[in-house]
Amino acid sequence: MKLQEHYKQEAHGTNGFFKAFEKYLAEFVYGGIDGCVTTFAVVAGSVGAGLDSAIILILGFANLLADGFAMSVGAYLSTKSDKDNYNKHKQTEYWEIEHMPDAEKEEIKEIYRAKGFKDKLLEEIVGVITSDKKVWVNDMMREELGMMEIDKSPLWIGGITYLSFLSIGLIPLLIYVIDYTHPLEQNLFFIASVLTAMGFIIIGWLKTYVNQTSVLKGVLETLLLGGIAAFVAYFVGDWLEHLLSR
Fold it and tell me: Is the whole model's pTM more than 0.85, yes or no?
């Protein structure tokens, strides 16, 4: 009974080690992208405005801590809301199966009849699905309501997003931290740009695993996004500096 084995596996889950490892990769990637882009934009805008390193550090860390926290809270609340909504509808489906089993069986039959199944095979499919309430409810949630269960913790999503935002977003500020403690003679903004580009390359590479796209495309898209943000921020800062200094 291959069909029955398939649904039994669905009921109990068969996630491997790699699936568990990559579960929160998307949150890490997008938190890192946002952190790196926004912090580098702050640095570029500050340099364009002619601000010194101390001000850049203040603005940069303020952005890291505040914007990162806001993003992580938004990710947490969004995921929690989706999970609560899913569980509410799931409880409704359990109630309907308990109190209106014939009607629910007919709904399953109609769903799979519309997929092209009929006669004995249709009856077998309906029988296998409705023999396990967990499989039955999951199938109704997916096929009737178009809802998939979120198997991620909202707290972990918020935490990973914040951790990624801070760790990757810190890259554009590293050289300014070093300069503050041990003054350097080099062009700090150039070094920050190179370090940030390296951060974009790493996070763009990781993004390809989330989006299932080519490595070159993922890296170039991320570099382009960061470059545009920095370009805009730098020239806005430069324009404002000239405007306010008149």
Answer: no
Token pair 């550090």 in the structure block, residue: 57
pLDDT digits 0-9 by tens, 114-140: 777 777 888 887 787 777 778 877 777
Q: Tally Cβ neighbours within 10 Å of residue 96.
A: 15
Q: How far is CA 243 from each of CA 43, 51, 104, 112, 222, rounded to the nearest angstrom? A: 19, 15, 69, 67, 32
Neighbours of 134 (CB within 10 A): 12
Tell me 182's DSSP state: S
Q: What angle do the packed helices 2-12 and 119-130 form, to 10 degrees?
A: 30
CA dist 89 and 45 (Å) reads 47
CA–CA separation, 126 and 132 (whole Å): 11
State the Cα–Cα distance between residues 33 and 37, nearest whole angstrom.
Answer: 6
- CA distances for 11 relative to 7, 149, 168, 204, angstroms: 6, 12, 38, 35
